[in-house]
């Protein structure tokens, strides 16, 4: 009898004919992200397929320690005409092209809320201040190439910004949240290779942060324990997803990771923000940042691109949200198989839900096998 191909494809093999047991490294499954409440579809068998998609161009990074054309180098004139001082360590200035501004009129909604337009076309004004943080005066350094003492000054700067802006928030300013982040590499849209990050201080709590706060608060109400505190203990016990750790911090490829070599850096104790950091915490954070980013560079022998961001307690929030807050950092790197093959979120990821081809355990194993010493240099 001739089998109709459509019938064959639409009718799965009966379960009693399945002889295999479930294998996390070979069978599709979903993983829940408790921070956001979303799911990740994991399809590890797809990692075996041949790749004929887009490849990133490897850009050589033979950079000088000082570039007279760089807007961020010491003593140089920026695009707006202001001149940088001849700084010798981490340096912060107000962004010349900020995403949000303080000096703008308040937005007034004129549409009644009980109309269709009022229900569907909602708008809020957003005010704030944006900063650029030059990590080093040296144009050709990246985090893994900086000394721990230099990185500690970066952490000092993060802490001071959070403290100073928080003080302003406590004295009448509209600030509610400080988002610290770094985009590294042209693959992440970074147009200037000088080592730098940004800080956006806003009068709202950003959506992703609010999702985390809601879920961490709910977890605490239901369990009387902290979500990330429990997660740290679970990962230390299971070990297989731990990339690196020290006395104060743990880095894992989270169970629910989306990006192939995504990592989550978590405080081992309840630190709500950098405001709770001791000198020991600052040094430990600098050390583990150097080890992690060095592993990234050594993975594909390239200046590994990523977007990194710090999540911590808002300046203005409920007592429940403040108590539930737990200092952590997200690293979202795009590289998939090599220095030239990048993951894209398209198709099902845009229309259905997030999806990955490499399990978190497989990715962690790759990173665990790398040492934390700099052996990739391409200046």
UniProtKB/TrEMBL annotation:
Q: What is its EC number?
A: 2.7.7.12
Superkingdom of the source species: Eukaryota
Q: Top EC class per UniProt?
A: transferase
Q: How is the cofactor bound?
A: Binds 1 Fe cation per subunit. Binds 1 zinc ion per subunit.
UniProt pathway: Carbohydrate metabolism; galactose metabolism
Q: Name one GO biological process term.
A: galactose catabolic process via UDP-galactose, Leloir pathway
Full protein name: Galactose-1-phosphate uridylyltransferase
Answer yes or no on keyword Nucleotide-binding.
no
């Amino acid at each position: 009898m001739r089998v109709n191909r459509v019938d064959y494809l639409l009718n799965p093999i009966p379960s009693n004919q399945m002889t295999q047991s479930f294998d996390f490294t070979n069978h599709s499954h979903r993983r829940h992200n408790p921070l956001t409440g979303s799911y990740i579809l994991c399809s590890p068998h797809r990692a075996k397929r041949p790749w004929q998609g887009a490849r990133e161009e490897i850009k050589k990074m033979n950079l000088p320690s000082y570039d007279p054309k760089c807007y961020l180098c010491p003593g140089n004139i920026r695009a707006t005409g202001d001149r940088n001082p001849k700084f010798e360590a981490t340096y912060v200035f107000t962004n010349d092209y900020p995403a949000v501004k303080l000096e703008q009129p308040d937005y007034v909604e004129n549409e009644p809320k009980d109309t269709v337009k009022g229900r569907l076309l909602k708008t809020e004004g957003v005010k704030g201040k944006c900063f650029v943080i030059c990590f080093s005066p040296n144009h050709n350094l990246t985090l893994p190439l900086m000394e721990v003492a230099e990185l500690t000054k970066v952490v000092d700067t993060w802490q001071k910004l959070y403290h100073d802006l928080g003080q302003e928030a406590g004295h009448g300013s509209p600030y509610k949240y400080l988002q610290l982040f770094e985009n590294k590499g042209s693959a992440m849209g970074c147009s200037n290779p000088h080592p730098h990050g940004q800080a956006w201080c806003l009068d709202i709590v950003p959506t992703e942060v609010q999702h985390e706060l809601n879920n961490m608060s709910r977890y605490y109400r239901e369990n009387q324990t902290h979500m990330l505190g429990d997660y740290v203990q679970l990962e230390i016990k299971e070990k297989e997803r731990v990339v690196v750790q020290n006395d104060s911090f743990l880095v894992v490829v989270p169970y629910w990771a989306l990006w192939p070599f995504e990592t989550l850096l978590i405080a081992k104790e309840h630190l709500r923000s950098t405001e709770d950091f001791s000198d020991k915490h600052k040094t430990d954070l600098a050390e583990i940042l150097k080890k992690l980013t060095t592993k990234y560079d050594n993975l594909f022998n390239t200046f590994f691109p990523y977007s990194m961001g710090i999540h911590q307690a808002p300046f203005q929030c409920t007592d429940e949200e403040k108590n539930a807050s737990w200092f952590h950092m997200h690293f979202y790197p795009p590289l998939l198989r090599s220095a030239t093959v990048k993951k894209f979120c398209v198709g099902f990821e845009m229309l259905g839900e997030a999806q990955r081809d490499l399990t978190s355990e497989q990715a962690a194993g790759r990173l665990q096998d790398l040492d934390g010493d700099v052996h990739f240099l391409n200046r």
